[in-house]
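Structure first, sequence second, as always.
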């Protein structure tokens, strides 16, 4: 899988509670890593049994050098990581409380050159899957168009983004996999079922929404289908949606039907939430399959 999106240097703090402002709070744990939605999806795809690379940009600053080395140390293929001259590498600070809720403060250099002309798009024809997110729209659009040109299945992570960005990217994807909040922006309504019934019939491929603890819903043959997420003790929800995307893509490539793929991805994302540290909490393939052997959630509801 080729995953296209933003890379950032992330610091995650775990606290008991996020107090009202003004306040100062001391963390009980801290985790430093190279992060981003595409990175997390690629990490999950690889950890669960696939092989993935990331196409992204970093600045020519010390954070960029550290980010590149961090990816190398984790075994990522960084051939598609481009250094943008004069740009600052993205950063994010994340505060996670004892319930797993989080406050995310990202910074992306608004003056960084967004051009995607350097992308090695000729490599898309050798990929099995292309996954894109919305934080770097120029790169995502170029990769999605290349995937369509080479008949390579492609997915867009319809996370919260400006409506113009979603309207630019979603129609290009075979699999439009939204967050519930992203779907609400795209469809113009907050009810997931109503939104899927509005978007599903006019999209050329699959349309679904990951709804956190409520599981995954998707449009199929004129109705909305649903897979429940298992109940787990939540520690940290950061990157759960990205783990879902990586796991869902892998399951689809392995030939699973949508219901099976959604169940697999829901379990992977839920198990991630039981560990602190963002994407580093992604479970192994064995952990997901062992859980699935015991997990018997309902797969349908009236659409």
């Amino acid at each position: 899988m080729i995953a296209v999106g933003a890379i950032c240097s992330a610091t995650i703090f775990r606290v008991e509670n996020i107090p009202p402002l003004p306040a100062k709070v001391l963390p009980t744990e801290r985790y430093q890593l190279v992060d981003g939605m595409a990175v997390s999806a690629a990490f999950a795809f690889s950890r669960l049994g696939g092989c993935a690379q990331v196409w992204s940009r970093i600045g020519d600053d010390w954070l960029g050098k550290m980010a590149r080395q961090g990816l190398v140390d984790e075994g990522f293929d960084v051939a598609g990581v481009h250094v943008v001259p004069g740009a600052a590498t993205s950063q994010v600070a994340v505060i996670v409380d004892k319930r797993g809720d989080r406050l995310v403060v990202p910074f992306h250099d608004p003056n960084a050159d967004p051009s995607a002309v350097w992308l090695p798009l000729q490599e898309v024809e050798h990929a099995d899957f292309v996954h894109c997110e919305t934080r770097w729209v120029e790169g995502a659009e170029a990769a999605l168009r290349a995937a369509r040109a080479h008949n390579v299945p492609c997915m867009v992570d319809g996370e919260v983004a400006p409506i113009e960005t979603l309207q630019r990217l979603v129609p290009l994807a075979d699999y439009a996999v939204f967050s519930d909040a992203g779907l609400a922006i795209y469809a113009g309504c907050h009810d997931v079922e109503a939104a899927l019934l509005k978007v599903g019939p006019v999209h050329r491929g699959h349309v679904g929404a990951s709804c956190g603890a409520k599981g995954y819903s998707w449009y199929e043959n004129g109705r909305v289908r649903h897979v429940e997420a298992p109940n787990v003790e939540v520690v940290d929800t950061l990157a759960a949606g990205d783990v879902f995307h990586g796991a869902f893509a892998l399951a689809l490539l392995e030939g699973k039907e949508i219901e099976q793929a959604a169940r697999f991805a829901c379990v992977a994302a839920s198990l991630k939430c039981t560990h602190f540290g963002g994407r580093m909490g992604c479970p192994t393939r064995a952990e997901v399959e062992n859980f699935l052997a015991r997990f018997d959630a309902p797969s349908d509801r009236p659409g």
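Margin note: The first strand starts at residue 2 and ends at 4.
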